[in-house]
Specification:
Length: about 260
């Protein structure tokens, strides 16, 4: 943990490395922990989580790195494995797609209600993250879906980049999710025009960039969080459209984030 009381974590999806390689890498970058993807093709898969997660925790600890959260399934196997290994947060998102939004919301709430006994038994929390496009996409969407639940079990993972892409001011977004806030995702992006002025209709696409260069004002957000005396896990999600320079950009972003809080 840093002097500010903040725990700096990084989503390791871009680095499909062994646990030793991963621990050494993120430690040298200055992170306290990681968000571990438990997905097919990674070091810890959903099917092998019971066997592989304890090994991952033990190996990373040699480098002073802990698993602050898991990006994975919300089934009993995953929840129990996280609880057994001292990992208190599973990050999740809700995809709506072409379905009716409110029907998806109601179905998800029912699923969460059924998970409460398992979360309570294993000491694990679900963290719902906002995501642009066809997901539950903004702070009010998170709030409306989870406000009925005890934040001990269901929390909000507020993602400042997706928030900005959807045009929501950060102060407003934080106000909305504050009662359930359990982690903050720091990344950045902007809408990029993909065709020329000669086109009949403008085509836009989101472009993932560094902390200093997108629509989410990290300095403004940090100032607001300091005003609220917030300390917790700040996860830099390590997503860049310029994937070839990921290592360069993540080093820049962790240094910038720390400069804003310490």
């Amino acid at each position: 943990m840093s002097n500010s009381g903040m725990t700096y974590s990084v989503f390791t999806k871009p680095w499909n490395l062994s646990m030793d390689e991963l621990g050494e890498k993120v430690s040298k970058l200055g992170f306290d922990g990681i968000e571990l993807p438990v997905r097919p093709g990674f070091a810890v898969t959903p099917e092998e989580i019971k066997e592989k997660l304890p090994e991952a925790v033990k190996t990373l600890a040699k480098y002073g790195v802990k698993i602050t959260s898991v990006a994975g399934n919300t089934d009993e196997l995953t929840i129990s494995a996280c609880g057994d290994n001292g990992i208190s947060l599973i990050r999740t998102m809700v995809y709506v797609g072409e379905e009716n939004y409110l029907e998806v919301e109601a179905r998800t709430q029912k699923q969460y209600e059924e998970l409460i006994p398992l979360l309570d038994k294993h000491g694990v929390k679900l963290g719902l993250q906002n995501h642009c496009d066809a997901f539950v996409c903004n702070a009010m969407g998170i709030k409306h879906l989870i406000e009925k639940f005890d934040p001990k079990y269901i929390g909000a993972v507020w993602d400042c980049a997706h928030n900005a892409l959807n045009g929501e001011d950060p102060e407003m977004g934080l106000d909305i999710v504050w009662s359930h806030l359990c982690m903050i995702n720091f990344k950045n992006a902007y809408w990029k025009v993909m065709n020329g002025p000669e086109s009949d209709i403008t085509v836009w696409q989101h472009y993932w960039t560094t902390g200093k260069r997108g629509r989410a004002d990290w300095a403004r957000i940090a100032a607001n969080l300091k005003k609220r005396n917030w300390s917790g896990t700040l996860c830099i999600t390590n997503e860049y459209s310029d994937e070839a320079n990921t290592d360069k950009w993540i080093a820049e972003d962790i240094a910038y984030a720390k400069s804003l809080f310490e």
